[in-house]
Amino acid sequence: MMISSSARRLFSGTGVAVGDRRQTMWRCEVVQEGRRLIADFYDQGLFVIDEDHGTAQGYLIEPEAMHPDTIEWFFHIILTELLRRRGLYTIHATALEKDGRGILIPGNSGHGKTTAFMSLLRSGYRYLSDDHPLFRDSGTHVEMLPFPSKIDVTENTISYFPELRNAPDGVLCPSLRKRFFYAEDLYQTSVGDCCEPAMILFPHVIDAPHSYLEPLSRSRALEALLPQSLVVYDPEVARREFQTLVKLVQQVDCYRLHFGQDILELPRLVTPLLKKRR
């Protein structure tokens, strides 16, 4: 494919993941050419997003040689670009729903995000997303939508939950850095409904027997939330996404979760606060 010399480079980078013998290295360059966004993965493939038509076309080269997680990552990039142009945004977070109210748990790997998610899921909360929930501005408020997929867990997280430690053969599957499973294989739960977010928890692990919640100002919450949003290439889309994030933070209660050793007791800490939001 020929790219015009007037095209503007928006991103260039490489990445590597540790996995099996399948290809896990990627290299990507994103350029803007008029109303088209071109994601060039060099010897692995290329995708073109047509902003006017809201479509994407492309190809992968020897996908059978790629690790499935690498392919999933490629398609996730393209899908999120299409969705955000239709007012649907995503952030790096886990999300659950209970009785029509949503909980968002953003954070980097190693901060207890998935472990907190698992503790609530096993207590009856419904699953929205393990990694990338969707949200949009509905006019009167921001609403959160499910984006269900596999749930990735580390060996450390597995050790906290007996149903994971004793899972039947075939339930926990190998992935690049972690293992994964599907919620319906272990829990009597279902995918949650579109809901109004009521709470954001920002977890970090502490060396203490008991967890506790610290109220967080909305300005600090927004500051902590912004790094969890994905790179935005279009300034107008970035403006709308930022406004939606601001509105989201304004409508929820925000807490720093100091996550101690009483991992299975987290619902007793969170659920009473969620019920007060009725």
Verbal overview:
With 278 residues, this protein is of the alpha+beta class. The protein folds into two domains: 8-84, no CATH class; 89-275, 3-Layer(aba) Sandwich (Rossmann fold), CATH 3.40.50. The chain is 26% helix and 32% strand. It has seven helices and 17 strands. It has helices at 68-84, 113-121, 155-160, 162-165, 218-225, 235-251, 266-275; strands spanning 8-15, 26-33, 36-40, 45-50, 55-60, 89-90, 93-98, 101-106, 126-129, 134-137, 142-145, 151-153, 173-174, 179-181, 196-205, 212-215, 253-259. Strands 9-7-8-15-17-16 form a six-stranded mixed beta sheet, sandwiched between helices. A five-stranded antiparallel beta sheet has the order 1-2-3-4-5, with helices on one face. A hairpin with a 2-residue loop joins strand 7 and strand 8. Helix 5 (218-225) crosses helix 6 (235-251). The longest helix is centred in the first third of the chain and has 17 residues, at 68-84. The chain is globular.
Write a short abstract of this structure.
The protein is α+β, with helices and mostly antiparallel strands and 278 residues long. It is 26% helix and 32% strand.
Give the helix/strand layout:
Elements lengths: L7 E8 L10 E8 L2 E5 L4 E6 L4 E6 L7 H17 L4 E2 L2 E6 L2 E6 L6 H9 L4 E4 L4 E4 L4 E4 L5 E3 L1 H6 L1 H4 L7 E2 L4 E3 L14 E10 L6 E4 L2 H8 L9 H17 L1 E7 L6 H10 L3
Parallel strand pairs: 8-15, 15-17
Antiparallel strand pairs: 1-2, 2-3, 3-4, 4-5, 6-10, 7-8, 7-9, 10-11, 12-14, 13-14, 16-17
What does the main sheet amount to?
6 strands, mixed
CATH topology of the largest domain: Rossmann fold
Q: SSE string, helix = H, strand = E?
A: EEEEEHEEEHEEEEHHEEEEHHEH
Strand fraction equals: 25-35%
For the record, give the distance between the C-alpha atoms at the N and C termini, rounded to a whole number: 55 Å
CATH level-1 class of the largest domain = Alpha Beta
List the uncertain runs. Answer: 17-23
By CATH, the architecture of the largest domain is named 3-Layer(aba) Sandwich
